[in-house]
Amino acid sequence: MLSVLSYGRLVARAVIGGLSQTDSRDYSLVTASCGFGKDFRKGILKKGMCYGDDACFIARHRSADVLGVADGVGGWRDYGVDPSQFSGTLMKTCERLVKEGRFIPSNPVGVLTTSYYELLQNKVPLLGSSTACIVVLDRQSHRLHTANLGDSGFLVVRGGEVVHRSDEQQHYFNTPFQLSIAPPGAEGAAAPFSSSFDVQLGDIILTATDGLFDNMPDYMILQELKKLKNTNYESIQQTARSIAEQAHVLAYDPNYMSPFAQFACDNGLNVRGGKPDDITVLLSIVAEYTD
């Protein structure tokens, strides 16, 4: 039996050992983007960070790294509305809020909702709708906070395995939740799904629109991520491009049984092939923060 003194020493050692293992370093995200608009030339960005009707942003503040993707709903084109205007403005507004420090790292839903309500108050009427996914890394706490609405989303990969992923939100097959502004004032703002968890140095975070996830299953994405050997921007950019290019090719393969086609079959539809769509990929690695 341990004496009280011996037990106290063991406890003290455990506490000191635990404290010594605490990582006091700040973390950051090294992020690269790549994408393809289905109706535009390969890799060409429209004004702002937009691939077709998709949009994205990457922003830094002293307390956090923040990034996001949005997928403008193409059906608005039938009404003479450019779908990229809504998604692009939403992402640019999110980026501005972050750079101005008008956000709380632990509340990415707040970034989305504040941006959406700014769009509602826009002096120039803005019609459209969009899915959205926001990812925030709190540098000091090493926690990743996310908000996802619809079928854009993210994966967190550690040790070659997916350890976290977003939940897809759909009303029914191929009809995702979305933010929208529609006449006459029939705005829609579904509640985003939020999550929060710790990350580690070397974790890979892939944030993308459904153009990626509808055309590439996890195992293909993981195969591409194995090519990522270090945390420098050039390597991350090369891997992001490789993933986006492969998804783009598969999207136009009529004989490929894509995740989208499999999901369609599960819903009673006889579908085969890839899903031609805009593709946006943000690829990040959790690294030690440096000024």
UniProtKB/TrEMBL annotation:
The keyword rRNA processing does not apply. Keywords: Hydrolase, Magnesium, Manganese, Metal-binding, Protein phosphatase. GO terms for cellular component: mitochondrion. It comes from the Eukaryota. Its cofactor is Mg(2+); Mn(2+). The keyword Nucleus does not apply. It is an enzyme of class 3 (hydrolase). SMART domains: PP2C_SIG, PP2Cc. It catalyses: O-phospho-L-threonyl-[protein] + H2O = L-threonyl-[protein] + phosphate; O-phospho-L-seryl-[protein] + H2O = L-seryl-[protein] + phosphate. It holds the Pfam family SpoIIE. Its EC number is 3.1.3.16. Gene3D superfamilies: PPM-type phosphatase domain (3.60.40.10). Residues 26-286 form the PPM-type phosphatase domain. GO terms for molecular function: metal ion binding; protein serine/threonine phosphatase activity. Belongs to the PP2C family. This is Protein phosphatase. The gene is PPTC7.
